[in-house]
Amino acid sequence: MRRPLAAALLAAALTAAPGARAAADSGPAAAGRGAGGASAVLDGLKTYGQAVLRAGDGSVRQIPAGLYEMRVDGGGMLQTYGVGVAGYAQPQARYTESGWGGSPLAGNAEAGRIRWVLEHSYPQHNDLAGLAKAAGAAALTAESAAAGTQVAIWRLADGAQVEAADPAAEILADYLQREAGRLPEPPASLGLDPGQVSGPLTGAVGTRLGPVTVRTSAQSVTVTPDAAATAMGVRVVDAEGRPVASAANGSRLYFEVPAGTPDGTASVTVHGSTKVPVGRVFTSGIPAEAQIVAGSSESAAAATAKAVWPQPPAVPADTVGTLGQLSGTAEVATAAEPASAGPDSPDEERLATSGSSAATPVIASLAVGLVVLGGMVVLLLRKRPLEGEEGEG
C-alpha cells in the first residue's frame, strides 16, 4: 500500500513543476501593440452621389454618399468611405489609423465583407464599364460608383435601410452586398509589437530589454531613440548588440540600458513611407464619423514603443542563506542565455533579457518541496517491510 502512496506523492510534486516554470517565465509583462500608422486630416467629401435613408422612426431623408479624401501628416493622400451612416464626417477633423478592434467595426461579423467590397469596387476597381457589366447595371460614373459602394458599406456596417438614388448605383450596391466574400483584417501600415517592454536592471555591463518587432509594408524605416534615452546612454540595438538606425519588416529592436541607470523610461520611434492598406480604419474620437480606407498614395507613417526599467528590490539578508547554491546556479544559467541564443531563439521572444532570473524564488521553493516529499517517500518505504516481503522466510 505504501509504494502506490509514495508514487502518488512524488507525482503530485512533479506535476506542480510545469506550473512553477510557467510562473517563472511570465516575467514583466509588455503592453499590447504600440500606437502607430498614419495620421491625417479630413479634406471632405469629394466624389459622391445621393442616397435615401429610411430611419427607424419612419422618417425618410436624402443624404450624400461617396468618397472622402484625407491629407496624411508628413505627405500622402487617402480615399475613404464612411463606416457609419449616422454621422457626416466634418472637414478638417483629425484622424489616426486604427485596427478594427479599436473602431466601430469591433466585433462586427461583416467587417471582412466590407473589406471585400472595398477591394472589388471603385476606386480599387476603376474600370467603370467593367464594373457596371459585372453588376448588371447601366453605365456608371465615378459619382454613381462611389455612391453605390458607400451604400453597400453602410448596409453591411450598420444594417441600415438605405438605397442609392441613382438606379445604376443601387444595382451596384445590391451586387456588392450580395457577392461580398470575407477577407481578413489588413495589417497596419507601420507598427511596433509589443508597444512596451520592461524589466529590472541587473549585471555589471547593463541590460538589454526587448525585442520589439517592426511590422510594416514599407521597404525600410528609420529608427530614432528619444532625446531622453540618448542622454542616459540608452541605445537601440539589434540582437548582436549593434546600434540600429534603420530597419525592415520583421526586424527586432532592443533597448540596451547601461548598468547603474536610475529608474526610468525610454522610447524609440520608427518612421517610414508606404501605402496604407485598403480596409484600415481611421478614427477621430467620434465613432459615427469613422472612415475606412479605399485607396492610398505613398504616405508617411510612424510608430513608437517604450521601455521601462525599475531597479530590482533589495534581497533581505536572512533569505540569502535559504536560497544557497540553487539561487546562484539559476542566476548564472539565466545570465548565460543571451550569449548563447541565436537571433531566432525562442528566448528572444521574452520581453526582458537580463542578468538575473524571476524564477529564482520559485525554483528554490520547488526544490525545498521536493526534498520534503522525497523524505516522506523514503520513510514510508523503509518503515516496515512490504506485505509481499513479510510472508517470505
What does this structure look like?
The chain is α+β, with helices and mostly antiparallel strands. The protein has helices at 2-26, 111-120, 128-135, 142-158, 167-179, 227-232, 320-340, 360-382, 387-390, and strands spanning 36-37, 39-54, 60-72, 77-82, 94-98, 162-164, 190-193, 196-198, 207-216, 221-225, 235-237, 246-247, 252-257, 264-275, 281-283, 291-296, 298-309, 352-353. Helix 1 packs antiparallel against helix 8 (360-382) and helix 4 (142-158) packs across helix 5 (167-179). The longest helix has 25 residues, at 2-26. The two termini are 21 Å apart. 36% of the residues are buried. The model is unreliable at 1-31, 319-364, 377-381 and 383-393 (pLDDT under 50).
Structure at a glance:
It contains nine helices and 18 strands.
Jot down its keywords:
393 residues; alpha+beta; Immunoglobulin-like; 3 domains; 6-stranded mixed β-sheet; 6-stranded antiparallel β-barrel; 9 helices; 32% helix; elongated; disordered N terminus; disordered C terminus
- Tell me what portion of residues adopts beta-strand conformation: 25-35%
Cα(first) to Cα(last) distance is: 21 Å
User: Number of helical runs?
Assistant: 9
Question: What share of the residues lie within helices?
Answer: 25-40%
Task: Give a count of the beta strands, DSSP E runs of length 2 or more.
Answer: 18
Major sheet details:
6 strands, mixed
How do the helices and strands follow one another from N- to C-terminus? HEEEEEHHHEHEEEEHEEEEEEEHEHH
Contiguous uncertain segments of 5+ residues: 1-31, 319-364, 377-381, 383-393
Return the structural class. Answer: alpha+beta
Count of the domains: 3
The rough form would be described as elongated
Radius of gyration, whole Å: 30 Å
How would you state the average pLDDT, rounded?
A: 79
